[in-house]
Write a structure and sequence with these properties.
The protein is mainly alpha-helical and about 325 residues long. The chain has 14 helices and no strands. The longest helix is centred in the middle third of the chain and has 32 residues. It starts with 7 loop residues before the first helix and ends in a 6-residue tail after the last helix.
């Protein structure tokens, strides 16, 4: 039977379409998003549950919405610098990409709403930040800060959902009025702020370098990002004040956090150093990819510092999956 008779062209066309959407949405980078919400829950010292899963689902949808919107907004620029991208190459139409961004945003907000009103509020702020970045702030001095804020809000979304669910369960068990459940959620967000700030600073540094990934030529930007990476790694590797020698289990948690902090520093730092020594477009793009991949050990280190050893190890289990998919679809 000939390939045409067996439906080969249709199968090939469907495969090409799926490949184009995978490239547009940068599916290999999705593995770096899951740990945001889990690290947020760990920052509270709480176990992730259904609400945390809803927050992670919302994060994934909003992240993908940002990817689709990014390429829609950059379609004219990509036609010059990256004509192989799905939109300028004609594999995906601009209206389809914009519709996907809108649909994914709606889906993300719906999942956030399922996790509670506080989560919806954080999810709405996250969605607004994503759309503002892609449509207006990306090419302004505020761009890296906006992207860092988006990643911080992503972690806070997981913290808020988990805190709200925990407070509601506690109030229900105690027979208290449900209105009292809102107050612990706010304190949960405050407890997660340091972890959110660390994630945001790293993201802002990587975003700053990414501005030169098609042209290269900058030594200062990779060096600055390398300094940020070293500082973050050193902070995460420090023993927490409460992790004294006589505290059961704290030493092991610190050892894991320090190990993952070192993995983070190596994953992000090595390609940044190469880009600083030779700021070519190829090495600059590798530095950006390394910064994105470093999100996973960074999230693992944050979870371990929060006492969630199992979560930290589970997050690190995403590394081989991310590497496998990244060989087929670039995360940048």
């Amino acid at each position: 039977m000939s390939p045409r008779g067996s439906g080969g062209p249709a199968t090939g066309s469907a495969r090409e379409t799926l490949g184009a959407w995978a490239e547009l949405l940068r599916v290999s980078a999705l593995f770096t998003v899951v740990g945001d919400g889990l690290a947020g829950a760990a920052a509270l010292g709480a176990r992730p549950g259904r609400a945390t899963a809803l927050a992670v689902g919302a994060s994934l949808c909003l992240y993908e919405a940002g990817m689709a919107l990014n390429d829609w907004a950059d379609r004219d620029e990509d036609a010059v610098d990256r004509p192989h991208r799905p939109i300028p190459s004609g594999r995906i139409s601009p209206p389809a990409a914009l519709a996907a961004a809108g649909g994914l945003t709606a889906a993300g907000l719906a999942l956030a709403a399922r996790a509670g009103r506080p989560s919806l509020a954080v999810g709405t702020a996250l969605a607004a930040t994503v759309w503002s970045y892609d449509l207006r702030l990306k090419h302004t001095p505020a761009g890296p800060a906006a992207m860092g804020a988006a990643r911080s809000l992503d972690l806070l979304l997981g913290a808020t959902a988990t805190a709200t669910a925990t407070a509601t369960a506690t109030a229900s068990a105690a027979g208290a009025a449900s209105a009292k459940a809102a107050r612990p959620a706010g304190s949960g967000v405050r407890a997660a702020l340091p972890a959110a700030a660390v994630l945001g600073v790293h993201t802002a540094a990587v975003t700053t370098v990414s501005r030169r990934e098609t042209q290269g030529g900058s030594t200062a930007l990779p060096l600055a990002a390398l300094a940020v990476t070293g500082t973050v790694g050193a902070l995460l590797g420090r023993r927490p004040p409460e992790a004294g020698p006589g505290t059961p289990g704290r030493g092991a948690r610190h050892a894991l956090a320090a190990t993952l902090a070192a993995v983070y520093a190596g994953t992000a730092g090595r390609p940044l150093l190469h880009a600083a020594l030779n700021p070519s477009p190829a090495l600059t793009q590798r530095a950006v990819g390394g910064g994105i991949r470093a999100m996973i050990p960074l999230q693992g280190a944050l979870a371990a510092r929060g006492g969630a050893v199992g979560v930290a190890l589970g997050v690190m289990g995403l590394v081989p999956l991310a590497r496998t998919v990244a060989r087929k679809v670039s995360p940048t």
